[in-house]
Amino acid sequence: MKLYSVIFKSNGKAYYFNGEDYLKTNDYVIVETEKGFQYGQINALLDELPNSEKYKNIIRQATEEDENNYYKLLEESQKALQKCKELVKQFDLNMNVISADFTFDKSQLMFSFVSDERVDFRELAKKLASIYHTRIELRQVGARDKAKEIGGVGVCGQNICCGRFLDHIDAISMNMAKNQNLALNPSKINGLCGRLLCCLQYEDENYIECSKGMPSVGETIKMQNGDGKVISVDVLNRKCKVLIGSNKEEIEFGNKNARSIK
Asked: Quick one: pLDDT band at residue 262, thresholds 50, 70, 90?
């Protein structure tokens, strides 16, 4: 047995499963999950097998019939999505349903929705269960998940990262923007989802490392030709500009040539 990484959507999160050693990357497989059987694709083979007993198994390699059934399920899921949206209007619920997915064995139908408030969807769930005769799950997701599901083009001109390659979205903080000396303008540091850009985390560790020992803007530092006030900092090049003396002369220097006044 080997440990495989399997995805269920092209930009989805990867999950780990035990499988026979004849399987290889890019194979389509049927796997066992907590929500039922699923159709997925192997995207990686793990060299090590840590705690393999806690992972569920790959049932088999997918057949042509499995593939055809999978595409039929995608069509049925889209019809279920439209039906759910109609029922949301009928029940006058404040929710925006963005996706619907059947498990491969149709033991569960999962809907994802966005809402600014808590929604009492019990009657909606009962109605959906009476129509599709399967277990219904309605999951409220955030703005980032909505952007990942819908996709779009970011401020960089490329398809948004969460919809292109990110399979896990880490917490993004305002400190990341501050570490990179970015203007705290929402139109500049927020993505299509209205939340902070995911790419703020990509270079955050480098900025933190490069900023060690650097003065902050507004700090007074002692130099050979007098005391100066820091007016800007170039973290990556480890340089800053200061104003010195009554003439407020602006100069640029490496921070190794100066020390902070305590």
From this structure: very low
